[in-house]
Amino acid sequence: MSKQTKADAGLTIASVDAQNFKRIKCVRFDPKAAGLTTLGGMNRQGKTSALTLIQLAFMGKKFLPSDLHNDSGGPGDIASGEITTTNGYKVRIHGKNGTVEVTDPEGKKGGITLFGNAVSSFATDLRPFINANATDKYKIAVLAMGIGELLETIEAERKTAYTARTVANGIMDKAKVVLAEAVEPGKDVKIPDEVDIVKLSAQIQKANQDNDDRTQKKHDQDEFKRNQQTLSDTIEELEADLKAHRNNLLMRDAVITSWKPLPEPINLDPMNTKMAAANKTNTDRAILIKTQTDYDALVCSFKEAEQTASDTQDDLNDVIQKKNNAVTELGEIENPDITLESGQVLYKGKAWDCLAGVEELIVAIEMGSATNKGCNFVLVDGLESMDPVERGKLDTWGVENGVQLIGTVVTGDPDQCSIFIQDGHVKE
Fold first, then answer.
1. What is the pTM of this model?
2. What CA dihedral angle connects 397, 398, 401 and 402, to 10 degrees?
């Protein structure tokens, strides 16, 4: 967070002068321009009265006490006060009713409306925020930062992104189940080489043709033999034709003699068995290939679903981050340690009940300072809950960030505070 520009141009308190205001009899002090100015003293000495005077000066009747006059003196002890700012405003509190009169740097007089919206009630009173529960702190922060409408829009985006992520996760889970139930093909199984059915069919066709040729030859031979027998039987009866028949017989004997031995019939059973096995192999191979394709499609479908789920999760994270950044972007808080998340105000990722006292004040002060559009001071009552070391850290933080802090601490030791008030007076 860098407050230098705002501190240079913003309103801070240059001096406080009060008489007879509540516990105060006469108190005047000049707070530090940046860092922590502590008003110390024992109880009922006038410390908180000084803060009330500042609250009344900048916020009006909201902080007007029911009895604003110090009653330790006489009837003439009417409360009065004057506060000057570093940019030229003067605030005068006077009269029995605690009238607030503001004079701007140009000399124009009026009420606290002359400040416009420069000072917020948040910065002048941190107690409602500090004492609120986690839910109310979140609501106060949203209202104070003026980002309620933005957060509603972002919340709608978050719900949309959450729904998209839920749907995508559902699709991914279903794809994962389907993939898990599928058996990966080819695992421990070798796909055989494809059998050449065309070549095998040609071999079978040739074998069938050879068998048909043999059957025909066998038929012809049997017929030839029958004719020979018929001729032999008719030789005696056809003596006249004997010579011709003998010649015919001799010729047939010569033909028969020239015949080669017939081959054995080809057994088609092994080839048919091989054909059946080849058909089964090719069928099984086609099934394996289709199964592999289907499995690859399941893997691809799961990966796509997984990527979609991842993308929707990224979208949801972006919306959540956008919501967390709303405070820093629109609330003028540049401290990345302060986020609004899940209905809580977090500091360095920790919930309010896990914060140290100085961390609680830093968050509250950051919120209060951010709501001051043209102002750079924050009032902090009740610093006695913090030890001197923590108050030192708070002072260092205020100096580094250019924020003027004015607070109170119950102490009897003047060395433990910037301004020590005793019995309504500043004790040097």
1. 0.57
2. -160
Tokens 């050879």, residue located: 210
C-alpha to C-alpha distance for 231 and 173, rounded to whole angstroms: 93
**Pairing verdict, β 26-29 and 13-19:** antiparallel
- Each residue's pLDDT tens digit, 104-133: 889 999 888 888 777 777 778 887 788 888
Q: How is residue 399 written in tokens?
A: 């100096």
Give the count of beta carbons closer than 10 Å to the beta carbon of residue 95: 13
Q: 81 - beta bridge partners? A: 18, 93
**Fold of the 4-146+331-426 domain:** Rossmann fold (3.40.50)
| Distance (Å, whole) CA 416 – CA 427 | 13
Rounded Cα distance, 59 and 113, in Å: 9
Sort strands 419-422 and 35-41 into parallel, antiparallel or unpaired.
parallel
Domain residue ranges of the chain, discontinuous segments joined by +: 4-146+331-426, 166-316
User: Where does residue 394 rank: exposed (0-12), middle (13-18), buried (19+ CB within 10 A)?
Assistant: buried
Q: What would the two tokens of residue 107 be? A: 């000399």
Structural tokens at position 242: 């004997």
Band of pLDDT at residue 54, cut at 50, 70 and 90 = very high
Judge residue 209's burial from the number of C-beta atoms within 10 Å of its C-beta, 0-12 exposed, 13-18 middle, 19 or more buried.
exposed
Count of Cβ atoms closer than 10 Å to residue 244 Cβ: 10
The H or E element that residue 338 is part of is strand 338-341
Structure tokens at 397: 């933080």
| Closest to 324 (Cα-Cα) out of 80, 155, 104 | 155
As given in the structure block, the two tokens for residue 60 are 């009006």
* Cα end-to-end distance, the chain, whole Å: 35
Pairing of strands 404-410, 377-380: parallel
How sure is the predictor about 7, in pLDDT bands with cuts at 50, 70 and 90? very low
Which pLDDT score is estimated for 325? 66
Residue 42 backbone phi and psi in degrees, to 5:
-80, 175
Instruction: List Cα–Cα distances, 353 to 128, 130, 134, 278, 345, in angstroms.
Output: 16, 11, 9, 78, 11
Q: Which among 94, 66, 90 is positioned nearest to 78, based on CA atoms?
A: 94
Q: How far apart are CA 155 and CA 162, in angstroms?
A: 10
